[in-house]
Specification:
Order of helices and strands: HHHHHHHHEEHEEHEEHHEE
CATH topology of the largest domain: Butyryl-CoA Dehydrogenase, subunit A, domain 3
Shape: globular
Number of strands: 8
CATH architecture of the largest domain: Up-down Bundle
Radius of gyration: 23 Å
Strand content: 5-15%
Bound molecules: adenosine-5'-diphosphate, magnesium ion
Keywords: ATP-binding, Kinase, Mitochondrion, Nucleotide-binding, Pyruvate, Transferase
Number of domains: 2
Strand order of the largest sheet: 3-5-6-8-7
Protein name: Protein-serine/threonine kinase
Subcellular location: Mitochondrion matrix
Pfam families: BCDHK_Adom3, HATPase_c
Largest sheet: 5 strands, mixed
Structural class: alpha+beta
Number of helices: 12
Helix content: 40-55%
CATH class of the largest domain: Mainly Alpha
Low-confidence stretches: 114-118, 138-159, 163-170, 399-405
Main location: mitochondrion
CATH superfamily of the largest domain: Alpha-ketoacid/pyruvate dehydrogenase kinase, N-terminal domain
Mean pLDDT: 86
């Protein structure tokens, strides 16, 4: 069954794309606590059922307006249709019919019982974002048009963001504790489950967005006989993939929160671990990278990696993001070491991973003796699809089920995407090379966790 976009849908998308997205910080995401109530989850789903369509609409619009014929590439259009279809599913999801009593309760702030309720922390400007590159919107855009979404209007048709209700700006917040003094009706729980199911379907649909967009760029390069991608396309990809990280974070978090009743680890709020242990994750990433390296080069023993890290260092983070960044940088180092010193060496210089803990940042340095990178190539390592692998492995859209990290190297996405992950929560990734000797990668992770997502 193939999906078709209608004119009417595209008009609605255009309308939504006029609204700015609202940034959320890691700390705000954690405020749900381990087990949010049905009412609180419902409030969050109301925020998301407006916020996600806004973010999706921006992407549809941007894909639609890409310059120089890039918007006409089949893979780009495919991705645009996924975004449009997901948009449609979200805005047409029927809302529950609620009694006015329940609606009132949902709009009322929770009675403060000394715990989480009123203490919604403010998101601050993201320090990793250059002015003008993304917008990082710490405050919800308050121009007097809140939304009236607490009152589910049970209609199944397309409805614009419900911003008619004046003064109800509190609804445009991600986390609002609901008034849990009494039981919530079963329709609310049923809706929450349904909403989470829709999100799961959408998340799966977008699994191979990164490879499909990359495919679209390749189609375009081939058609236009381009060797490199220019600054505009690079900036578009940065925005696009950064936005994808944010959308998937919100979706993944909501699915996990809804599912939380099954969970028992008190250190987790959704997919965020409030005590992410750096040493454990680093050890795992080292093991995985060495394994992939042995497999790729047919080595009995991959180059060694030494880890210097206090075993107690832990902080609030998404373990999946940190693993991704470590794995990508370690693979790069191991590859450089093997290729510099030759596959048939018995012994390789050791790559060092050093973890430092400060008040503001946790910094991880990955130092290798893989020969470094010529200074003139440094800007290139941050461009998508720049790789020194001769033969890019084939872009099979199904291989990246675990988010684009299977192969040793060859897509040129490792560094730029890792830097986006770091910046997403206010960190950064820097690379310094000594040509003829080796490379140091600094991964700065912001532990204050209050910075807003970079938005566009
Ligand atoms: N530690 C390193 N030492 C030497 N070169 C590196 C290192 N890390 C990255 N590079 C260079 O940067 C390029 C891009 O890296 P990356 O974005 O991870 O893509 P890929 O690994 O798929 O090529 C690599 O192909 C390599 O030439
Ligand atoms: Mg790489």
């Amino acid at each position: 069954m193939s999906w078709k976009r209608s004119e009417k849908l595209m008009d609605t998308i255009k309308h939504y794309s006029n609204f700015p997205a609202t940034g959320v910080s890691l700390r705000q995401m954690v405020q749900f606590g381990e087990r949010p109530s049905t009412g609180t989850l419902f409030r969050a789903s109301q925020f998301l059922s407006e916020e996600l369509p806004i973010r999706l609409a921006h992407r549809v619009q941007e894909l639609h307006d890409l310059p120089d014929g890039l918007n006409e590439m089949p893979s780009i259009q495919r991705v645009r249709d996924w975004y449009a279809q997901s948009f449609e599913e979200l805005v047409t999801l029927p809302r529950p019919n609620l009694s006015s009593d329940i609606k009132d309760r949902l709009l009322r702030p929770a009675k403060s019982n000394g715990k989480t309720s009123q203490m919604v922390s403010k998101a601050t400007q993201n320090p990793s974002i250059v002015k003008g590159q993304y917008r990082s919107a710490p405050e919800h855009h308050d121009n007097g048009n809140g939304n009236g979404n607490g009152n589910g209007n049970g209609n199944g048709g397309l409805h614009g963001p419900g911003r008619q209700v004046k003064g109800a700006t509190a609804n445009r917040r991600y986390f609002v504790a609901a008034d849990d003094a009494q039981e919530w009706p079963p329709e609310l729980a049923a809706y929450n489950t349904k909403f989470a199911e829709s999100l799961e379907k959408i998340k799966r649909r977008h699994d191979s967005v990164v490879t499909t967009v990359a495919q679209g760029i390749l189609e375009w390069k081939r058609k236009k006989q381009r060797m490199q991608i220019d600054h505009n396309i690079q900036a578009f990809l940065d925005r696009f993939y950064m936005s994808r990280i944010g959308i998937r974070m919100l979706i993944g978090q909501h699915i996990a929160l809804t599912d939380q009743k099954l969970r028992s680890d008190p250190n987790y709020v959704g997919i965020i671990c409030t005590r992410t242990n750096v040493r454990e994750l680093a050890m795992e990433a080292i093991e995985n990278a060495r394994f992939v390296c042995e497999d790729h080069y047919g080595l009995f023993d991959a180059p060694k990696v030494q880890l210097v890290c206090n075993p107690d260092i832990s902080f609030m983070y998404v373990p999946g993001h940190l693993s991704h960044m470590l794995f990508e940088t370690l693979k790069n180092s191991l590859r450089a070491v093997v290729e510099r010193h030759g596959q048939d060496k018995d012994e390789f210089p050791v790559t060092k991973v050093i973890v430092a803990e400060g008040k503001e940042d946790i910094t991880i340095k990955v130092s290798d003796e893989g020969g470094g990178i010529p200074r003139s190539s440094i800007p290139l390592v941050w461009t998508y699809m720049y790789t020194t692998v001769d033969q890019t492995p084939s872009l099979d859209p199904d291989f990246n089920k675990s988010d684009f990290k299977a192969p040793m190297a060859g897509f040129g996405y490792g560094l730029p995407i890792s830097r986006l992950y770091a910046r997403y929560f206010g960190g950064d990734l820097k690379l310094i090379s000594m040509e003829g000797y080796g490379t140091d990668v600094y991964l700065h992770l912001n532990r204050l966790s209050s910075s807003s997502e970079p938005l566009q």
